[in-house]
Amino acid sequence: MSSARQVAADIIGRVLNGESLNQLLPAALDAVADGQRPLCQELVYGTLREWPMLQGIIDRFVKKPLRKKDHDVLALLGSALYEFTQLSTPKHAVVSETVNTVRLMKKQWASGLVNGVLRSFQRAESLSAIDLAPAQRRALPSWLDTVIGQEYNDHLEAIAEASRHRPPMTLRVNQIHSERDAYLSLLTDAGLSAHPLDHLCNGITLQQPVDVTALPGFSDGLVSVQDGAAQRVVDLINPQPGERILDACAAPGGKACHLLERQPGLKELVACDASPSRLQRIVENSKRLGLNPTVVEADARALPANLSSPGFDAILADVPCSATGVMRRNPDIKILRRAADISQFAEQQLAILQGLWPALKPGGRLLYVTCSILDAENDGVVKAFTQQHNVDITPIVMERGIARDCGWQVMPEAEGGDGLYFSLLCKPAD
User: Fold this and answer.
1) Among residues 278, 232, 224, 227, which one has the least CA distance to residue 252?
2) Which residues form the domain of 106?
3) Low-confidence winner among 46-50, 255-259, 275-279, 399-403 (lowest mean pLDDT)
4) What is the pLDDT at residue 259?
5) Quick one: the chain helix, strand, coil %, rounded to 5?
6) Is the pTM of this model over 0.90?
7) Rg of the chain over CA atoms, in angstroms?
8) How confident is the model at residue 311 (pLDDT cuts 50, 70, 90)?
9) Are 220 and 236 part of one and the same domain?
10) N or C: which end of the chain has fewer CB within 10 A?
11) Are the beta carbons of 148 and 412 closer than 8 angstroms?
């Protein structure tokens, strides 16, 4: 078994070289002893959440950039600085363990570099004494810091802070099998503290995250893990008995299953996704919950004719996006995402709306959702679509968030939900 710090450095280094965290982490953790996995995950997620700041610190003490093949050393330095600034590990232990990890990595040449940087940081006495750019202090990539500042200047600091926090663990009680109060009692009996989310009829937030295996009745489908903002989808679609509904970008299936839980009397719930491997997640989740959606491999930009006929009463388009509203869950975004990516996402999002619109019945409703906070992917896409089609926009008002021209933006909150955008588009009746 490899040490937690060594594996964490390898994962972070590979992210720095362009690989996705979601693809790396599961297999990498297999190389870590069970007792060391929490530390490994904490170092990976925490370091990536703070990376723009940590990179700024490293740049102050390392004058010559490290080569790409040595990004694992760069990552190790970053994770050690994360321990210094965010965790309670004694500083002498961090230095000792980090130098030992360099040796395990068989890069003894870096021992002096690592030791020197960490000692220099210690001598700086405080983070505030180090000259960092405002974006670095907010732990945001400079391009994203600029865009958010332009679009949400009053919320910039709060958005940045939310991106640096561990997300709370929020549950959705399956109302087919249980009621929220009854499930809260089960949690209490299991020794788990939790509180209901008042604005969500089936929402619960745990005081401390736990493994899903510790949740009472999880394997029996009593409950699912789902962010509070994401649970608002069902309220906005408001599924009715006898309706035929499409979840067009459904994997891993949380929202599709929620629709079926809320309205078992649907005529059909079609859950489609373009990725065969991701479709399997829908099958697994729906089976655990005792639900039976129609699962179909299809590209939302070009639905097969047999799927579109006779049309859908409602469509959920939870589209691929920059994920800038969920950076705390996907911290590699701070490294991998580029400003040029946003226009590419917007083009894809508009193409999805154009592909889905013919499948919506006259009088039907389409809920456009992103986990982005950027206008180009949100109002910008909806406005471009409405210029090409006859669309009625239903106003949305929630207890938290910001009204936009074509919808509603839920802002990411450090102790609350993710950042999601919603726009409810209705096709005029014939």
Assistant:
1) 278
2) 4-132
3) 275-279
4) 98
5) 50, 15, 35
6) yes
7) 23
8) very high
9) no
10) C
11) no
